[in-house]
Description:
With about 180 residues, the chain is of the alpha/beta class. Helices cover about 35% and strands about 15% of the residues.
Amino acid sequence: MTKIFRILAVSGSTRAGSANSAMLATARAVAPDGAVVDIYEGLRSLPHFDPDDDRDPLPAAVADLRGRLTEADAVLLCTPEYAGALPGSFKNLLDWAVGSAAMDAKPVAWINVSSSITGAAGAHASLRTVLGYLGTRIVEDACVHIPVRRDAVGADGLIHDDAVRDQVRAALIALATT
Length: 178
């Protein structure tokens, strides 16, 4: 029996119809054989990070996040940029991950969907810094910039452009074969 490679996908956007979330749903749809993309949807339910609360018993949403991070073989992130950096709710998620070993040495990649002139460079520079503090192993070949406008997202919440889907699949293969 072939081992399944489990990728936890986390969107940094809370916006309905987000191109970031659509990218991760598309990644789930085009995942290569042997890989399963599980989308984390608890971003909104995480409490604000407070070091005093980073002890047992953890808030249920935090325990769920850390458990899912621990169980994953790799993590795929897709986040927008707000005010030149990571969105606060997404940074909050990463702050909760710092207090555990859930991402230590874990293969991590991101897909940057920004179609802005800056390409969300500030957010992804910040993301790289935070992932360093988390002790992750960034898989450079799986970190890609695939600009996607919100109007490219279909009514089903997926991106149907074949070139985009091929790039996403290639990134997943790179992440899963590290």
